Amino acid sequence: MNNEFIYLDHAAATPIDSRVHDVMRPYFSDEFYNPSSPYAPAVAVRRRYEEAKHSLAQNIGGKSDEIIITAGATESINLAFSATTGHVVVANIEHHAVLEAAKAREHTIVEADENGLILAEVIAVAITPQTQLVSVALANNELGTVQPIRDIAEIIKNERQSRQVHGDITPIYFHCDASQGVGQIDCNVARLGVDMMTLNAGKIYGPKQVGLLWAGNHVKLSPQIVGGGQERGIRSGTENVAGTVGFAKALDLASEHRKYEFERLQKLRDFLQEKLITAFPNAVISGHPKHRLAGHLHISFPNLDAERMVFALENRNVLVATGSACAANKGTRSHVLTAIGLAPEIADGSLRLTLGHLSDENNIGQAAEIIIEEVKSEYARVSR
Amino acid sequence: MNNEFIYLDHAAATPIDSRVHDVMRPYFSDEFYNPSSPYAPAVAVRRRYEEAKHSLAQNIGGKSDEIIITAGATESINLAFSATTGHVVVANIEHHAVLEAAKAREHTIVEADENGLILAEVIAVAITPQTQLVSVALANNELGTVQPIRDIAEIIKNERQSRQVHGDITPIYFHCDASQGVGQIDCNVARLGVDMMTLNAGKIYGPKQVGLLWAGNHVKLSPQIVGGGQERGIRSGTENVAGTVGFAKALDLASEHRKYEFERLQKLRDFLQEKLITAFPNAVISGHPKHRLAGHLHISFPNLDAERMVFALENRNVLVATGSACAANKGTRSHVLTAIGLAPEIADGSLRLTLGHLSDENNIGQAAEIIIEEVKSEYARVSR
Predict the structure, then answer these.
(1) Using the beta-carbon criterion (under 8 Å), do A39 and B311 form an inter-chain contact?
(2) Whether this model's pTM surpasses 0.90
(3) Minimal CB count within 10 Å: which of A274, A320, B252, B268?
(4) CA-based Rg of chain A, rounded to a whole angstrom?
(5) How many domains, chain A?
(6) Interface pTM (ipTM) of the complex?
(7) In this structure, is residue B1 part of a structural domain?
(8) Residue B231: left (phi > 0), alpha (psi -120 to 50), or beta?
(9) Among A201, A230, A256, residue at a domain's last position
(10) Catalytic residue among B326, B327, B328, B372
């Protein structure tokens, strides 16, 4: 990270942890062998790859052979959707990958509440006898709202049991995209009660373009990419050894520091929120007040233009986001803000400030002052 | 690369060129931004990504917006097959990715000749009025045989013209997997006459798990992975900036040194072949005697066991392959050797020796001596 910037966009991308890069480096150079080759140095590479998968599995309470390494969360989500062909239930604030995958088949899109919370009762109502998949992200990437995954899992478990009682063999699975939140929230698959879970290394200071899908052994995935039969035939292609080893290290570090980091970020975020709300009592905080990622602050300054603010802040070396990265380059209003019913004049003045490893008391204090100055100056400009 | 080994398996994996790693490194650390983020440092990352795609395109004579970056050749091949749903023609020596993708739909599998050559006439006979795709690899990864791509392209062009004349709008495309060979053979898409081409960074001293599919603007691909709409909606997911920048550098270097490297490797390979054939006149060289990759030597020692030889050579620090990497860990006989009609007692004693950047006069001379010693000792053992 270039030290001249104060980076407040950890939800869009995280810098790779140097400890992660260190464990990856050998696989870029000396240990470059194809893990399918028969000689000992290649077998050692294969073993390291399997160890990394084992470590990833252990970290989430799953088994190694339930993990498919992918090129990122989007591919994982698409693969999760391959498990069934039937009706799916998703919410209107889900990531584009989930929404697009859902729209390719029979689906029901339920509404999140005004805090971006997806209530288990709302999911329950949307489940039909034909529903085979429910997909809910652990935390919304724009608002930071953390979803009641265990409650939703309970609903799905009940539905499954009721089908069993009635001799109905239609399966129903619960997929959770935990890309946002895994560094802050417990992601044990058994405790969450999910059947499938997506993780993304690039969001937890690991290598980019590396993800995984965990799918319990009872779930039957369909290969999207066929060929040499790697990953138990589900995802062919030479294995990403460096990426997987780095991913395992990143998840290790994330798990190890999870509680500490949650508290640290929450304190910094609350400080920043307090400063901004005090300076601008008309500002609107979105996302659930309690169930929210520790580093997330979604704040709207009514009647201001978010893009102008982003550029003004960039001139002061503070990097922030407006809307989600996926939608950012399309010039359209965020579907999430529309979904939670934010009025256009509020939505259009929204900044997403996401704190993380690069945040500390010092630069968050500075950022608060700079944001206050720039927002004041914008309000002065528009009221002229 | 660990210097203690003589590496003769460049077709399975190549070590990353340090110049490639150098251009990638910033995107692992300082320049970690999401290319979709709006602020200038992220816009610079986006620009660098687009430049890398432009450079890749220029290198093969295509346009930047005709290139989809993927996680490797297998994904590229699967994506190429998405362009049509109709009948495909492939050969029996193609990579598993091609064969599996073909088998998922109506297909004809033609036979390569005893040198692993796929004759244009054989393709011509297999094309029906329903054929929408022909897929032929530029060079076979086991034998090194280089295919008559231009001749096959001519056949397909004729078929297309004949359909046009008859008012038949059924499209027919020609896809070429050039993963093996791009560092040694001209891969200009116009000169080859292909509609789609797959390349793999990991085979040309670039980063692993990075590939591309070039598809001419007249080809309509179907997205396999949906979501944020990256890569013109064909392949969603945050872009692989480091990988693409590294890929562009690797292809640059490969193109720059192509002719020199071809001659250098051919000389080394011919030297090695001559040494081995002189020592073992009963050995069988497979692959086309003339149309063959410069670094490829596929040699069979009748009645010997290839796996035993691989381990014996490994004990002498010489790393070689038996069969292709994809099939190597399955304990089955290579489908390519079966396809070219090699008798089992010959096929089972086959080594694939592939030379590359790590090969020089010195270590190839050493390798020749070691291989001769070990093969002699194996023959002595089996004749006891």
Answers:
(1) yes
(2) yes
(3) A274
(4) 22
(5) 2
(6) 0.93
(7) no
(8) left
(9) A256
(10) B326
Do A231 and A343 fall within a single domain? no
Q: Which of A12, A78, A237 sits opposite B71 (nearest CB)?
A: A237
Are residues B314 and A39, on separate chains, in Cβ contact within 8 Å? yes
Chain B residues with CB inside 8 Å of A228's CB? 74, 95-97, 325-327
Handedness of CA B287, B293, B294, B298 (dihedral sign): negative
Distance of alpha carbon B317 from alpha carbon B315, whole angstroms: 5
Chain B nearest C-alpha distance from A158 (Å):
30
Q: What is the pLDDT of residue B328?
A: 44
Beta-carbon separation of A237 and B101 below 8 A: no
Q: Are residues A194 and A61 in the same domain?
A: yes
- Across the interface, whether the CB atoms of A33 and B21 are under 8 A apart is answered no
* Same domain? A365 vs A243: no
Phi-psi region of B255 (alpha: psi -120 to 50; beta: other; left: phi over 0): alpha
Q: What are the distances in angstroms from CA A333 to CA A56, A58, A106, A307, B253?
A: 36, 40, 26, 11, 43
Cβ within 8 Å of residue B203, ≥6 positions away = B11, B13, B14, B73, B179, B180, B182, B183
Secondary structure of B287-307 in HEC code, one letter for each residue: CCCCCECCCEEEEECCCCCHH
* C-alpha–C-alpha distance, residues B368 and A138, integer Å: 58
Asked if A147 and A208 sit in the same domain, the reply is yes
Contact A370, A318 (CB under 8 A): yes
Catalytic residues of A: 326
Contact state of A33 with B13 under an 8 Å Cβ cutoff: yes
Neighbours of A85 (CB within 10 A): 12
- Residue B278 burial (10 A CB sphere; 0-12, 13-18, 19+): exposed
Q: Do residue A278 and residue A377 come from a single domain?
A: yes
Does residue B106 belong to any structural domain of this protein?
Answer: yes
CA dist., res. B140 & res. B359, Å (int): 21
- According to DSSP, the β-strands at A196-200 and A211-215 are antiparallel
Measured over the CA atoms of residue B70, residue A240, residue A15 and residue A61, the dihedral's sign is positive
CB contact under 8 A, A236 and B74: yes
CATH at residue B276: 3.90.1150.10
Range of B185's domain? Answer: 18-256
- Asked whether the beta carbons of residue A72 and residue B5 sit closer than 8 angstroms, the reply is no
* Contacting residues of B for A225, CB less than 8 Å apart: 74-75, 78, 97, 224
Give the tens place of pLDDT for each residue, B310-352: 999 999 999 999 865 454 445 678 899 999 999 999 999 999 9
Mean pLDDT, contiguous 10-residue spans, chain A (384 residues)? 83 95 92 93 96 98 97 95 96 94 96 97 98 98 97 98 96 97 93 98 96 96 88 89 97 95 97 98 97 97 94 97 60 85 93 97 98 97 90
Interface test with A, best of B37, B107, B198, B351 (most A CBs within 10 A): B37
Nearest to B325 among A37, A100, A225 (CB): A37
Chain B nearest-CA residue for A330: B36
User: What's the angle, vertex CA B95, arms to CA B94 and CA B98, rounded to 5?
Assistant: 80
B97 and B60 in a common domain: yes
> Is A145 part of any domain?
yes
B176 is catalytic: no
In a shared domain, residues B127 and B218: yes
Chain B CB contacts of A179 below 8 Å: none
Helical residues (DSSP H) of A280-305, grouped into ranges: none
Q: What is the DSSP string of B238-268?
A: S--HHHHHHHHHHHHHHHHTHHHHHHHHHHH
User: How is residue B199 written in tokens?
Assistant: 């390349």
Distance CA A186, CA A178 (A): 10
Residue of A nearest to B32 (CA): A15
> What does the pLDDT read at residue A384?
83
Nearest CA in chain B to A311: B39
Question: Based on the domain organization, do B57 and B206 belong to the same domain?
Answer: yes
CA distances from A208 to A201, A219, A250, B32, B289 (A): 6, 27, 11, 9, 43
